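Observation: inputs received (chain + S-adenosylmethionine).
Thought: call the complex predictor directly.
Action: predict_structure
Action Input:
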Amino acid sequence: MANEVFYSYLHNFTLDDVLSLLDNDNGEQKTQVENVLLDGEAVKYFINEFWTSGQRKASNLHEISYRACFKPQLPRFFIQSLTGEGDLVYDPFMGRGTTVLEAAILKRRVAGNDINPLSRVLVEPRLNIPLYQEIAERINRIPFNDQAGADRDLSMFYHPRTEGEIVSLRRYLEEKRRNREEDKVDSWIRMVATNRLTGHSPGFFSVYTLPPNQAVSPQRQIKINMKRNQQPEYRDVGKLILKKTKTLLKDITEEKRKEINACGEKALLLSEHAGFTREITAESVKLTVTSPPFLDVVQYSYDNWLRCWFNGIDERIIDKRITVTRNIRQWSGVMQDVFAELYRITVKGGWVAFEVGEVKGGRIKLEEYVVPLGKRARFHCFCVLINRQQFTKTSNIWGIGNNAKGTNTNRIVLFYKS
Ligand SMILES: C[S@@+](CC[C@H](N)C(=O)[O-])C[C@H]1O[C@@H](n2cnc3c(N)ncnc32)[C@H](O)[C@@H]1O
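Observation:
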């Protein structure tokens, strides 16, 4: 069956239709269905490769790297299945904005939130896309000064001339912001430059280093340089921004750009704790697709120091605000507030798809904790969906031992508000 066509009609269907959709094959293999006792109730597990490689490729507009982001096909599956054009789709932990952007591409209304202020830097410009020509003209007008020096030692990352260009771009953007003159073209340039600061190919401003969402410390970079016997070469900042811009906009036609921007004009983007988002109207959201911070201790300030420096954000604030929980009890406490808030803002007949991934190599099955949290907030647990790529018949749903390298599993609890 042409799944995508089927999904696009589904939002008008009944709960039984949703069940039969999930119980369907994906065109290649039959969905495995199991009943599992969770929180005193039998919960249906649907296991398959729900978004297959045969499906439409995701838009290049998503191609901004971010720690622990999910594939656009994940939110697309739920958005197409459970909402129609104009419905409000939300992500309380939006990160690089995968859900929000995919929803805008599919002509839904969007709302997003993330406590990390860098998230809005990365998301907002892609909901308010300038023309390539406007960006190219602006780049030409920016006073790049390849002699400018940074207020900290960045010589292990950048050639002196590249550093000068980054510093002058940073000053230019800072001044625009201070004078409240930063427009959508500047914000786009800010987003792309933030994404290009460090990386592992000549498409980035830096010498070879870790991927862009994991800036290393200067000391570590010095070691990498010694080990690889490398020195930063000159990179043309303006040229690289335009090159990445071209890639991001590759499949965005003028019509699509206008549609996305129309959606962006009405988008509500917040930088709050996901449990306290009073700006979102009660009973307004048709579907939430999200993936929360997990139990691991991610050092966000360490990961983000260079991105924060470029954007004039104090990285210690990120560390203070971001939820880092050390055990499942703490984690559940925070998520309980989030579920209460999601219940408040979800319409009757609305959905929450809560992706929990594999934690601690599959030893902790977070859905076992998530199901009671959602139910306590008065949601119904509709099912658990396991999307498993390279699905094999011998796999079992518990993810222990069978989550061999090369497989990519998403574990999603689907809740419904009656
Ligand atoms: C797993 S990532 C989400 C990635 C996202 N699905 C994507 O595709 O980019 C979790 C996000 O939660 C954010 N976060 C952590 N604690 C938060 C909180 N209390 N409220 C809101 N956002 C929070 C982090 O900044 C991070 O961006």
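Thought: report the result.
Final Answer: Residues 1-6, 391-406 have pLDDT under 50 and may be disordered. The pocket of S-adenosylmethionine is lined by residues 66, 68-70, 92-93, 95-96, 98, 113-116, 119, 273-274, 291, 293, 322-323 (CB under 6 Å).
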